[in-house]
């Protein structure tokens, strides 16, 4: 039987090349033909609904079709839909820059914009390199990233990404970076704490910096949670240490908060938990509440001033057509308003506690290992025979859809990253569905 969904799916598979996908898998793997979203729910063409437990690739903070953000975007639409940001400026981009700076206590007072996360990474890498060149140290050209780091999939971003699947096929195109130990909490052996692991990992970074800082421009990290790596969580102590090390060895620190910024880890920025600010802060995903593509790189007066000159080649030479798009900036401003109006960071603490408790049955499940939580992120590793691991994420995704749940595990790591608008019913529903899907898949 041909449903409305199935017709859209057929047409999509002919004309749309889907991201990060082996298209042939869709011969058997379902594609969801979305029609509508409202709050935590997504609806397909046949009126089936799915709980968006991963916030549509970690972007959506306040639910789909949020009336407050929608209204702000509609208002802006009738005023200025777009205007170039070279030679021009506009109210939404100025206001957004000022408010983001204020959220860093004005430590990072200059915002450079692009449209997606990977571009923000390209910008931070180029800016760091160019800063050193402008400062008479052109030999500082290398970058350091963590084991299993993920910073995006453009060629520059892949050079600081250590995820085999994304990197290996394109290896000849990619520059190599120094890869240092990840402070992954799961490494802790008897008696060790996350702080011990963090110190050990930071010591390894120091060994590298002692030897190579003269040619290194920057260290790049995902603060507190390495999401795409499979939700590796680590102690803020690591950030504290590497902040000191980077300062001491004259190397920039780039914090990629593309996934963890905007309240995801329990504080507005993850870096706050370590009481530090990086030299470059990369933001995207949640920045517009999941409405429109926008990214930003925030940096210090010191960096900005190294580019401020008569000479055009000492300026930062980078641009994208949609840089600082007013609609996207307006969505971001509305999203920031919601944080303030509803005291979201403190409200999330309550939601986080409740969902964590509702997930108790999974913590003690014999097939669950390393159940972990950081703010509004939950993850656990499923234990299964090795031959089942390849099929697991796809099986889980498929089974979850039948339970009205949208969840896509990474390898054997199941994670939840829901929007910040969960009520008690949503919390119970999400926990029950996750458990039911897990048990069904793991017992197969
Ligand atoms: C998603 C992500 C990126 C890349 O952002 P895109 O908008 O997908 O290009 C970079 N870094 C981190 C930590 C991410 O999670």
UniProtKB/TrEMBL annotation:
It comes from the Bacteria. InterPro entries: Aminotrans_3 (IPR005814), Aminotrans_3_PPA_site (IPR049704), BioA (IPR005815), PyrdxlP-dep_Trfase (IPR015424), PyrdxlP-dep_Trfase_major (IPR015421), PyrdxlP-dep_Trfase_small (IPR015422). Its EC number is 2.6.1.62. Pathway: Cofactor biosynthesis; biotin biosynthesis; 7,8-diaminononanoate from 8-amino-7-oxononanoate (SAM route): step 1/1. Pyridoxal 5'-phosphate binds at residues 117-118, 256, 320-321. The keyword Cytoplasm applies. The keyword Transcription regulation does not apply. Homodimer. This is Adenosylmethionine-8-amino-7-oxononanoate aminotransferase. It comes from Oxalobacter paraformigenes. The gene is bioA.
